[in-house]
Amino acid sequence: MNVLRVGQELGQRGYRFVWLISDSQPSSRTLAETRRFDNLEVIEYKAPQDEKFTQGGLSRDPMESIKTLVADQQRAARGLFNDKAALQKLKDLGVELLLKDGAFAPASLLADLLEVPSVDVVPIPVLLPWFSARYSIPQPVAYLPSLGAPFTPNMTLLQRVINLLASWAYQLLVMRPMGAALGDLAAELNMTFPESRTAAGVSPTAAIIAVTDWAFEFPFPIPPKLHMVGPVLASNAKPLPQELSFFLSSGMSNGNKAVYVSMGTLTAMFEPELRSMALGLSALPNPVLWKLPSSDLPGNLSLTDLPLGPNIRTVDWASQNDILGHPSVGAFVTQGGINSMHEAIFHAVPVVVTGLTADQPMNALKAEHFGFGISLDPARLDPVDKKPIESTIRRILTAPTFKANAIKLQKRMHWTRHPAEKAADIVEKVLLTEGEEHLQTGQHTLRWWQNSLIDVYGVLALMSVAALAMLCLAGCFIWRVMRRLGPRTVHFKQQ
Which UniProt key words apply to this protein (predicted)? Predict the structure, then answer.
């Protein structure tokens, strides 16, 4: 969606935008139809027929979810590069630049095949060491938490040790296998892929558009080719259908603001968790709008099996940005995807974050750190216990500090130029300069010990030892000379 939104802005500037999607993803096709704009052309490539993509989202186990993601990307890439008709159509259109999802690593191969510069749109927060390894960005592990490390920048010595080990483990167990898998795919497709990029999974992109905002990021230095433009999907709310607006406002006469619940699509919730949420939400006096399509329900569970109270209304789909912008909405219960967090901040709505997988636990930690949300461990959601979710939402709705901090972050996120416009400016500049890498730092040309200056420190240590040894030798020499040249005792013989 982020790429398409940037494409929409480019289309308004007269550029022809071609969106390449898989025919196995009807949601992408629906998105293209509902968000169609002038100068948009959609090309579908054939997904592999003998292999099915993972259904039901990612695993909550970090390593398992990474394996699933890489496997799905590999299958999608094979389908794309084996669809010669789709590739030929791209070439015939005379594509000048590839605007790609930064999370889809095989897209780098497509840029090489088309021989055009590329710009990455990164749909996730700035995570270390993923960003560092993929985009050759400095990694200040001394104060910036690594993915999977539940810390804030104010780390103790022990936490910094754990943070460094977590960063090393991620690079060794995730980034290198991911880069190797990409190299194997290139070899399988008879494509060349530089060894340096294979080893680290480095993207050769001319510019990186991070659709996140400093309002929700821990500050750290960034290189010139990384652009923090802000959330391109957040925008002023549009009016809701009258019936839905009336439901959200139905509790305002008693001072009960509405609660919006949407757990995203990245991973599914278990039946005990859904039952606990249903009990807790039903115990609230507030109207609750819950986006809960039947496709998100595990096994044979149906909506009628859940203990839903009369205050709850379920919908298959909802315009999240417009709902969060409704004045009657007072809290948002979410898994913690980055787009959801940005839209909550944009509309100053406090959040309850479950944080199930990927970047979601880190986003939950940030929500608490910045004071506009509460992290709720999914393990606390018991099928017969309504208290965890009920008490957490009551606290979010009644404690004024959460709303005050949400407003503070909203002000930090304020912009005079929309992020989609800023992103389109960057794409236009890359087109103008024909993708020259004048903003690329030299970090990717160095080994890890060179980037860490370990070799320099080693030379300096040897020089210091050599200088100390020379001083010692000089001191010993002077001492011996002084002993020889010092005053001597003269003995006189008595007559």
Answer: Glycosyltransferase, Membrane, Transferase, Transmembrane, Transmembrane helix
